[in-house]
Write a structure and sequence with these properties.
Largest sheet: 11 strands, parallel
Length: about 150
């Protein structure tokens, strides 16, 4: 991945398929966050997050990302480690470096070769997602935010 150096500060340059794929919020490697994280739009995590994550857009967990949280988002791409349940209203993609320990629920699922997945998978219909709001959250779980990770 190309790197831009600005006065000794190295920033990774990400190349996105379209401008709409670019996240609005970025949690960099070396950053630790504990609590409830909410983003109306896209979110990329390369740091450590513990608690709960909700995004109305595309959530990307980079290869350096470590998540101990239940996740709710429109679209989710996992390249790092997730310990917790994932609800992707539209699409969940797990890249070859992705590791998930928890249950997943989504309308569309893409799993690459080399993925580590330990949990259950439930395929849902996209009708539960309307605009930027999830009409029915985790229909197979009572309250995932209260489940122990």
């Amino acid at each position: 991945m190309p790197v831009i150096n600005l006065k000794g500060i190295e920033l990774k340059k990400f190349i996105w398929k379209t401008i709409t794929d670019a996240p609005d919020t970025y949690i960099a490697a070396g950053t630790n966050f504990e609590g409830s994280l909410f983003s109306e739009k896209g979110l990329r995590i390369d740091g450590v997050v513990k608690g709960s994550i909700e995004s109305g857009g595309h959530l990307i967990v980079g290869t350096e990302g470590i998540i101990e949280a239940n996740i709710k988002a429109r679209d989710v791409t996992i390249g790092g480690e997730v310990k917790g349940n994932i609800f992707a209203a539209n699409r969940l993609e797990i890249t070859p470096t992705g590791k998930i320990k928890g249950d997943i629920e989504t309308d569309k699922l893409i799993i690459s070769e080399g993925v580590i997945f330990e949990g259950h998978c439930h395929m849902t219909r996209s009708e539960i997602y309307e605009g930027n709001e999830i009409k029915e959250v985790f229909p197979t779980y009572n309250n995932p935010s209260e489940e122990k990770i």
